[in-house]
Task: structure prediction
Amino acid sequence: MRLLVLTLFLIALITLPLWGSRYVVSVVMLICLHVTIASMWNLLAGYSGLISLGQQMFIGIGGYTLAVSSMYYGFPISLSVLAGGVVSVILALVISRPVSRMRGVYFAVGTWIIAETLGITFSNWGYVRYGMGLFIQPAYKLSIPSIYYAAVILGVCSVLLVYLLLRSNLGLALMAIRDDDGASEAVGVNIFRCKLACFLISAFVTGLAAGVLYLNTIFIQPFEAFGIGWTVKLLFIVIIGGMGTVEGPVVGGIIFVLLQQFLSDYVGFNLMILGTITIATIFFAPRGIVGTFQNRFHFEFFPIRRQ
Amino acid sequence: MLSVKSLDVFYGMFQALWDVTVDVEKGQIVSILGANGAGKSTLLKTIVGLMKASSGSIRFDGQQINHLEPHEIVNLGISLVPEGRRIFSSLTVLENLLIGSYTPKARPHRREILDTIFQLFPPLKERRKVIGTNLSGGEQQMLAIGRALMSQPRLIIFDEISLGLSPLVVTMLYEAIRKIGREGVTVILVEQDVKRSLEAASLAYILQEGRVSLKGDPKRFTDNEVKEAYFGL
Amino acid sequence: MLTSLEPLLNGILLGGLYAVIGIGLALTFGIMRQVNLAHGELMILSSYLSLVFISLLGLHPLLTLCLVFPSLFIIGYLIQTYLFNRVLGRGMEPYLMVSFGLSIILQNAMLKVFTPDARSLKTSLAIQSLDVYGLFHVPVIYLVDFTGGIVLIGLLHFFMKKSYLGWAIRASGDDLSTSKLMGVNTARVYAIAMGIAAVTAAMSGVLVGMTFTFYPHSGTQYLIVAFGVVIIGGMGSLWGTFLGGLILGVAQLMGGQFLGPGFQLLSGYLILLIVLTIRPQGLLGRK
Result:
């Protein structure tokens, strides 16, 4: 039954450029990208207990790597996107040692500061044209459907990745850690390795998604790319959707992008409204839409508990 | 003085207390016993306002207190020495004691009460500038008791004070409790150390899986009665 | 040698200002164990409020404090009562997110109302500077900031050490339910504490407004300063925060002097990251 729904859904997604308008295609593309990035943030925050306020560092690095490798080094587009993912993982590796020593709030603030540091560094760096940003020339000649398919592949794969990860041994370990740090350590779960694996995976995929994102927007600037605005959006998506659920980022991503389209006329109010809705959700429905739904009806679309 | 009637308390969907009735007269030393998980802590927390009962009533000197906030209940004259001592880790011994006199009626008398407590527990006076949690287990228990006394309670509840302490220290603490009782303060003792608390009390209740299974003068209990009340064998 | 003395001295004085910025966070984060990510916005809100009072009543910026202090106290009290108290006891995460949401709302509200233009609280103090033995210049405003810092921290320290309310705030941060057993109305005590933190934000906001230009988004960078100061100096220690402020101030100005102006912010961030990695409990902090 679920398989049927899923297949229909995938068919609709894949064939969209054939029957959907350009506007619809671009909206769905944005949704897929946001779902990707949010799923990765959720992997960290909802499952590994690492609430990062600096995920934008991978978005910035991924985007700039795409820009630099395609423009300055003439890499083909797909390789440039891949490069974005690779450089993000390298960044994650480099900071993993110092960051692993930060717990809870310190981790949140620490990651935020690293992102801000990168932002300032890039805006003072002549190689990437300082704060003025870069126009990603090679992206001009790309067709909308090609970017769309890249986004869809990323979106579907990231949700699948999270699902499969959680059903694997790693996932079992993560959920054990989430329930009880000490007990899981006692049975031999290497907490550090598990969290590191999640950190690296999320960095990689976020870097890829950033590459595709900036292929679409064609213009990258340090303040926006490394800006805290990304975390605001991620927080909204994951909280509304439901932290710690596989479906949460999907639901949240859809709501967010649609809300953004709807509110785009009311410039300046949209972030305020997002903030208000986020706070209200934490008060009244802390498990998000999917979480509350799962509690009420005891039904999970992507079941991750072993039977 | 304290009258708990037909109390039902839930933790979410799990019922921890079933129709519990406990009566404490002024000046008594009452003991509440039971195995781990029998509901003793739940009962105490509900009396003191940290948890709410779903049905039943709690009256102190005739006044209903179920719906009151913990700080209001303390103001009426009930004090709890919590399980695990719960000494404030940022405060010194002296500050821990002084915060005990936070309620408005106790504040003006803090100097005198402090003197009394220092007489009762001399080590506290010596180490009054030390951070509270840097004391030994026995001293921390003294501090917890002293702190609870600072509000000049008419009813004081001791939750498992003998846990983790040597018998010598426990004897000393019980001496102190008897002294407190002689001053006219009503005492409720919740203990795992059956022997000690039955010796000290004039009335005992035994809880089993959230229900009162035995009640009466502990001097009259037989060993078998107690065992059965504890474990229901 | 003399070229490094001026930024050193000015760094110390600026550090006083940083300490004031951090003290509110030291109270909420270090003592109450609540992460208030909207602290920076409360500061900047105070700067804007001061601006409003100046244009309405023509007061000197320092005098507007008489009006800004009570306003911010009320705002802090209300925020705690209606927002933070609702997630009390649920762990650090809900706080993080609720205060984050609040900071976004405040930032964008200020953006809407006051436009993105640069502002400052104009005062002659900012332009005047003191000649020390004819060797170097110290902006008078820095001296004002520093003095303000010492006075504020001294007052707060005294309050925390010697008053019932101070003990109540500290006890509640240690163990919320046990402090209720002491007769402490924790909801109200936290609201008052938040009000006090907001008042310190007010002071730092007005001082910052007099010392530098500010924008609606300035809150973020000052929040990082506040965190930096509290983390370097150590959680739970008010004088530690002062020390943290001095270190950060010196690091920034020395960094700017020797590495270039673009490196001012970076030097501060780097020191903070180092401390976070090596000694997260800070210099004077306890565990």
Chain C has one domain: 2-278.
